[in-house]
Design a protein that fits this description.
497 residues; Alkaline Phosphatase, subunit A; Arylsulfatase, C-terminal domain; alpha/beta; four-stranded antiparallel beta sheet; 2 domains
């Protein structure tokens, strides 16, 4: 006779024996890698038609995955756009709307990393954070990241030769560096090597790797020993334009290294990789011959159609970014999507991919039906009613092909029909008062006052900002700052970086 206790023991023992088999039968949660280039222009990479800069690995990524034509940045400058990506909120609801460098996330905000932690994901970030300086409520290790190595403050990130980087709020010295363009240890190499190590170290567990890489943002520095520099050093362009191009190709090579690593580790088919810019490109290296810049960030290299504006503005040129997604076996190769979306969509997309639960109250919609097909996703692709942006007294809203822009708070609204006027050359506000009224009402309802995080102390945050010039104390750093009117201009420029 089998007693109840014997039956219980037998069932428990059976579960122990079957556990490895049951675990093996469960599909592994997919890994997610998000690579964000700092300031790469819409038309600069080869897969977007660019002719000046070599991007063979990104071109292959486009051929093996999906290219988005209308997936926009969350803002037109660095810190706010990262906040919209991390939190799924557009810039009318996000906490980080200024671009001073260290404005913090609030302590109660959920990021993509924090969303994934309950599922057992290892979470790492490598590059430029921009959503909270040291000793603030916004540091990455308080928002779900096991490790973040790079720059917490974006002013710190204005040098590739800082005396130190930051890892989980502690300084990591870089030998021989004195800030600016002076030094022996190229910080981006250190950051990339750490990202590669993170992926390798977590090959047997699901991971989220967030790589907001700093190139090609200025300073336009790359070691002369880097193989990418040899490709451009003799081009008939100003040296900064040559170094900018080399930095993009260097980053492209490193992205190729990540794809090679995924294949080596047997992770290629179970890893969704995204690549994008962070905000619209600048008309860098302008001249009479090239009024939109040598590398044509916002001018179609074949048709000549231009997108108005640049980084820092809320015209299309300030928000258009190159955007790719690759997931072998899930995303059909060589596909192109015209889905109209933006950075807030990444949080719900990653939630859908991984089985996580996105927080309530976000502004994004999941792109999963677009990525893998509506049949595989089990639902139709949701669409936005509108997209909304604000920064530095600018406001913009897009609904389908209609787009409104207000360059400052007391300026009249401009209205553009992008189907007829993709360059936003002629406002038609006077011709379509009903459309204008509808969109401006949406813009008014789309925002709430910003609620920023806080600092316990700003001492280390200010130290990091001074590290742009080297490890000087406050008095020494002030001697390196521009004086008088030049200082004011420099500070204004820094706000757009």
């Amino acid at each position: 006779m089998i007693t109840p206790s014997a039956r219980t023991f037998s069932f428990g023992a059976l579960l122990v024996l079957l556990a490895p088999l049951l675990a093996a039968a469960q599909p592994a949660r997919p890994n997610v890698i998000y690579i964000m280039a700092d300031e790469l222009g819409f038309y600069e990479p080869g897969f977007m038609g660019g002719k000046n800069i070599q991007t063979p690995h990104l071109d292959r990524m486009a051929a093996e995955g999906m290219r988005f034509n209308h997936l926009f940045a969350g803002s037109s400058v660095c810190a706010p756009t990262r906040c919209t990506f991390l939190t799924g909120k557009h810039s009318g609801h996000s906490s980080v709307r200024s671009n001073g460098g260290g404005t913090p996330l609030r302590a109660d905000e959920t990021t993509i990393a924090a969303m994934l932690k309950p599922l057992g994901y290892a979470t790492g970030g490598f590059g430029k954070w921009g959503c909270g300086g040291r000793d603030s409520t916004g540091v990455p290790e308080k928002h779900g990241f096991d490790v973040f190595l790079g720059y917490y403050d974006q002013v710190h990130a204005h040098t590739y030769y800082p005396p130190y980087l930051i890892r989980n709020s502690e300084e990591v010295p870089l030998a021989g560096n004195r800030g600016g363009s002076r030094g022996q240890t190229y910080a981006h190499y250190v950051i990339h090597d750490a990202a590669v190590k993170f992926i390798r170290d977590h090959a047997k567990a699901p991971f989220f790797a967030y790589l907001p890489y700093t190139p090609p943002h200025g300073n336009f520095d790359i070691p002369d020993t880097d193989a990418a520099w040899a490709l451009y050093k003799d081009k008939p362009w100003p040296e900064p334009a040559r170094r900018y191009a080399a930095m993009v190709t260097m980053m492209d090579r490193q992205i190729g290294e990540i794809f090679a690593l995924l294949k080596e580790l047997g992770l290629d088919d179970n890893t969704l990789v995204f690549f994008s810019g962070d905000n619209g490109g600048n008309d860098y290296f302008k001249s009479a011959e090239f009024p939109r810049g040598i590398h044509l960030a916002n001018k179609h290299p074949q048709t000549g159609v231009e997108y108005r504006g640049t980084k820092g503005t809320l015209y299309e040129g300030g928000l258009r970014i190159p955007f790719l997604a690759r997931w072998p076996g899930k995303i059909a190769p060589g596909t192109v999507s015209d889905f109209l979306g933006y950075f807030p969509d990444l949080m719900p997309t990653i939630a859908a991919v991984t089985g996580a639960t996105a927080p309530a109250g976000i502004d994004g919609v999941s792109l999963l039906p677009t990525l893998i097909g509506e049949q595989a996703a089990g639902r139709k692709q949701a669409q936005h009613d509108y997209l909304y942006w604000e920064i530095n007294n600018w406001t913009a809203l897009r609904q389908g092909n209609w787009r409104i822009v207000r360059p400052k708070a007391d300026a009249p609204w401009e209205l553009y029909d992008l189907a007829r006027d993709p360059s936003e050359a002629q406002s038609v506000a006077a011709d379509h008062p009903a459309v204008l009224a509808r969109l401006t009402a949406l813009a008014a309802s789309a925002r709430e006052p910003a609620r920023e995080g806080t600092f316990a102390s700003t001492a280390r945050h200010e130290r990091d900002r001074r590290a742009k010039f080297g490890k000087q104390d406050e008095a020494e750093a002030s001697e390196l700052q521009p004086k008088g009117k030049a200082k004011g201009k420099a500070n204004k420029q820094a706000q757009n970086k």
